[in-house]
Design a protein that fits this description.
The complex is a heterodimer of chains A (121) and B (110). Chain A is 0% helix and 51% strand. Chain A has 121 residues and is mainly β. Chain A starts with a strand and ends with a strand. In chain A, 39% of the residues are buried. Chain B is mainly beta and 110 residues long. In chain B, a hairpin with a 4-residue loop joins β7 and β8. The radius of gyration of chain B is 13 Å and the shape is globular. Chain B starts with 8 loop residues before the first strand and ends with a strand. The interface between A and B is medium-sized, with 21 and 27 residues.
Chain lengths: 121, 110
């Protein structure tokens, strides 16, 4: 059974960098894109970006200058770094998986448990 | 404010059929597949529909999706109390080069 388990700091100060990691259990990276999605409290979902098993990335243009998604196949995990955090970045951050084919662009079938990240001085 | 427009709320009575709409444009729904998610409070979204009208294994056939032009709909038949949660649509936007979501619809079972 495929599971995603995520972890990382939940409280940051303005200007700090968010670092989250998502460990993949029960599946290899091949054949999928591995994504990050966030949800501000009481609001809707926002796609942050994704990485393929070969390391190819796609980022949300609105966040591209601050985002890095990386892969560590030896540890079966992928990570999100988001720099220059502000209060507007306060959200629940989810990792998720989708099949690689283009027609599955929004088909996230497995999700992590979510991490609440609060940015406050 | 969201690129895809959903009604903020919808309602129905037990056993009834309800539909939730998702309106977009030629650069997203008009030219790409639509996906639907169900989200229970405090939990990660669950994929309900992919590629406009396909159900993942394990999703009841009470849930169905359709698309016409630049709009899509999620239909829920035989409404149950446990359906009273939030629903989101999503599609890739070719102009923005981003996956966009609707603002979400909260379904109330009266």
């Amino acid at each position: 059974q495929v599971q995603l388990q995520q972890w990382g700091a939940g409280l940051l100060k303005p200007s700090e960098t968010l670092s989250l990691t998502c460990v993949v259990y029960g599946e290899s990276f091949s054949g999928y894109y591995w994504s990050w999605i966030r949800q501000p409290p009481g609001k809707g979902l926002e796609w942050i970006g994704e990485i393929s098993h070969s390391g190819s990335t796609n980022y949300n243009p609105s966040l591209k200058s601050r985002v890095t998604i990386s892969l560590d196949t030896s540890k079966n995990q992928f990570s999100l770094n988001l720099t220059s955090m502000t209060a507007a970045d306060t959200a629940v951050y989810y990792c998720a998986r989708r099949p690689s084919s283009w027609y599955f662009m929004g088909a996230f079938d497995i999700w992590g448990q979510g991490t609440m990240v609060t940015v406050s001085s | 404010q969201s690129v895809l427009t959903q009604p903020p709320s919808a309602s129905g009575t037990p056993g009834q059929r309800v539909t939730i709409s998702c309106s977009g444009s030629s650069s997203n729904i008009g030219s790409n597949y639509v996906y639907w998610y169900q989200q229970l409070p405090g939990t990660a979204p669950k994929l309900l529909i992919y590629r406009n009208d396909q159900r993942p294994s394990g999703v009841p056939d009470r849930f169905s999706g359709s698309k016409s032009g630049t709009s899509a709909s999620l239909a829920i038949s035989g409404l149950r109390s446990e359906d009273e949660v939030d629903y989101y649509c999503a599609a890739w936007d070719d102009s923005l080069s981003v996956l966009v979501f609707g603002g979400g619809t909260r379904l109330t079972v009266l």
